[in-house]
Design brief:
By secondary structure, this protein is mostly beta strands. 6% of the residues lie in helices and 28% in strands. The protein has a four-stranded mixed β-sheet, with no helix packed on it. The N and C termini lie far apart (145 Å). Residues 1-13, 43-53 have a biased composition (Polar residues). Residues 81-146 form the CHORD domain.
Length: 288
């Protein structure tokens, strides 16, 4: 009775109308009795019911597309298999590609490696190791065929191009230059045979140079070599005989009784020259 009022207004002889409280389905009224005997009223919201969430099953991530060996492309002896975890080297098509022996079987990891919190392994395997040397020894989990020269998918953007080929000779060697700038060493291949050279060079801007050169004369592939440079690919070919090479690439047309000379002094030397310089004997043969 002693609680002061909280609002003001005009006097009235009519009793105020009190609206009946509307029941609320979301509110529960609870009454508790305190230590001093007073009743305490408080409200608690009705706990919301959680609806089951339907989630569509997730499709497993697609496996990475595995590379295939291009059997039509020549492989250089000693080339290591490109599959992860294999490490075997190419010997020959009969042993490493077409055979059914142990050397033709590739045991590899089809998925990439994973390095996490010091542990190392492959996504396709459960085994994890701490040391990098042990990681290199993890045996592959899948068997298949080796990949020495991966098949290349020719996209619409890839273009075949031509590269200039120059050469000069000494009495024992033929030096060949293929002017292909910034050749991709990992993807490109150069195969030296006794009578031919095979080039498959990948260049910037999705360009590719592919050519087979039938040589003018026989060479020794075991003592011949090649090397990649920033602007070209250099080959040193060991002649199998002492003949003079009139041209680099073998031709069906008759070249006539013309041969190159060696060791000519002064500005008339033919070794490394852009134009062929003939001695008096060969020059008279052409004029005749």
């Amino acid at each position: 009775m002693k609680i002061p009022t909280c609002t003001t207004g005009s006097h009235s002889t009519e009793a105020p109308k009190v609206e009946a409280p509307k029941p609320s389905a979301d509110v529960n009224l609870k009454v508790t009795e305190g230590k001093d005997g007073k009743e305490v009223y408080f409200q608690s919201a009705t706990p919301a019911t959680s609806l089951p969430v339907s989630t569509a099953p997730r499709d497993p991530p697609p496996l990475p597309e595995e590379e295939e060996d291009d059997l039509s492309a020549p492989a250089v002896p000693g080339t290591t298999c490109k599959r992860k975890g294999c490490g075997k080297s190419y010997v020959s098509d009969e042993v490493s590609r077409n055979g059914d022996g142990e050397e033709a079987v590739c045991v590899y990891h089809p998925m990439p490696p994973i390095f996490r919190e010091g542990s190392k392994g492959y996504l396709c395997c459960k085994r994890r190791v701490l040391e990098f040397d042990e990681f290199l020894k993890i045996t592959g989990c899948k068997t298949g065929r080796h990949v020495f020269v991966p098949k290349t998918k020719i996209t619409a953007a890839e273009q075949f191009t031509e590269c200039r080929i120059d050469h000069y000779q000494t009495p024992s060697h033929v030096h060949v230059s293929v002017f292909a700038k910034q050749t991709d060493k990992e993807r490109s291949t150069v195969k030296i045979e006794a009578t031919a050279l095979h080039f498959d060079l990948y260049l910037p801007a999705s360009k590719r140079f592919r050519k087979t050169v039938e040589l003018f004369g026989p060479i020794d592939p075991t003592t011949s070599s090649f090397k990649y440079f920033g602007t070209k690919v250099e080959l040193t070919l060991k002649k199998s005989d002492t003949r003079s090479w009139a041209i680099l690439e073998k031709s069906d047309r008759s070249l006539g009784p013309v041969s190159l000379t060696f060791g000519v002094g002064g500005r008339t030397g033919t070794i490394g020259a852009k134009e062929v310089v003939l001695d008096d004997v060969n020059a008279s043969k052409i004029q005749a």
